[in-house]
Amino acid sequence: MNELSDQQLLRDYAKCHSDIAFAELVRRHVDLVYSAAFRMVCEAHSAKDVTQAVFVALAQNAPQLTNHPVLFGWLHCTARNLAAKAVRGDARRRAREQEAAAMSELLANESDAPWERIAPHLDAALGELSEADRDALLLRYFERKSAREMAQTLGISDEAAQKRVSRAVERLRECFAQRGVTVSASGLVVVISANAVQAAPVGLAITISTAAALAGTSIPTTAIATATKAITMTTLQKTIVTAAFISAVGVAFYEARQVARLREENRSLQQQHAPLASQIEQLQRNHDAATRQIAALTDKLASTNKSPSEVLKLRGQVGVLRQEKAEIGSKSALSKITADPETRKAMREQQKMGMSFIYGDLVKRLKLAPEPAGQLNDLLADSVMDNIDTITQALHDKKSSSEIEQLFSAQDLAMQAKVATLLGPDGLAEYKDYSKNIVTDITAMQFEKSLAGDTEAKAQKKAQISRTMQEEIQSALAAAGLAADFQTLPMLNFRNIASEEFGEQSLKLMDNVFERVAARAAAFLTPDELKKWQEFGKAAVDNNRTALLMNRKMMAPIAQ
Hints:
mainly alpha
């Protein structure tokens, strides 16, 4: 599966403040950053603080880093600087350095140093290398990139990438020798590959994504300490984004209209999400750990001069790890979650709360009493969960476009039959009309804040935008040969997650609609308002594209 690069995600975050893009960057690099921080401060709580501060700094410096070729190089350098400040003047650091020096002196005659001797010096030694050498090592042995992947990232040939790595390993070995730690180049590679990256504490990625993203948009650089504490979420959108699986709601648009009520709901949701996100992260870490162990054992096997029995033993270990990796890789990050009754129940409750927010105006429009309103929300939540199962299976089985269309058409019809039973024919008609116009209603509601004039003027422009958008959606659907009730909000059309083809079709449709509306809106919007509309539309498409990609990744088998 093709993924967005670090640079593309940074651009999405820098330009559109996409929490989804930033959460993906944290997921990719949190283990690497935490591992480096822990080696330098040697204490879990301080390492978590340093890690969080590093990602806060990333959020604040995102615009300047969008063209940085090796993001982890910058993250590692920032981690070193922040860790050094954290331990400066600390008696524990001095004691640790003295202990490491004494150990190095005692073991200087050994040919291969264990991890315990290498770890205290690793990040300082990396810091003494040139940026080119350091990036090469980080890509090869920390991020486990192949020579070809390194070459593509660095913009050099495969052969040049391989030579750069070999040169960097030798220079790193020399840095260790200057510190009294004797280790062969091959031994250094094996030890670093097997130990340099350890799993960050469960839930840390979620905390960082929330705090750092918030810091990146609203908190000055000098207030990192405050930023790491200001984690309270005030919108449904951010609650769902930081849940890690981002299942099914319109994350590109929604903002809270009842902030006070949502604050309390968000606290409850975050408590429910903690065990779910932890299990997802653990599943991904298990797969990544197996990959690292296989690579380390393979390197060791290739360079070993051991006896045949030792070689057979290593080959057996590689075989077992490959089998474990294959078993993990055949599952999606969500499969373990949806298989457990308790966590599935908590996940369903989250979806129920999200869908009750999205369909709240429909409840008001139909004047539903609390009991039928609750039953409608239950139907919506169950539908989301059923669709998640369908998406996961479709991605696992690599269903064709026609098969995907059949699956989700059946899901839609089943949901409509249940709504008809609950609300009657008229209620079903209202439900279908409301669902069809969700993207129009949300867009008009959110864009209202960008309109100029008094209350009456804003209301008139808002109504014109809504009416124009509805007309252009119907025109675009007819031109594309799609049904009039086609769901045009990409993240609420589950076909788009199950199929890249459907997803791209939906995104192009959305982009086309915004362009059509812009052409007509010039008649009733000011030039400044029109410019904001065009920016709004681009952000909506970009955010939906990122959200679809991340959802697809979370629901597809890990190995894809």
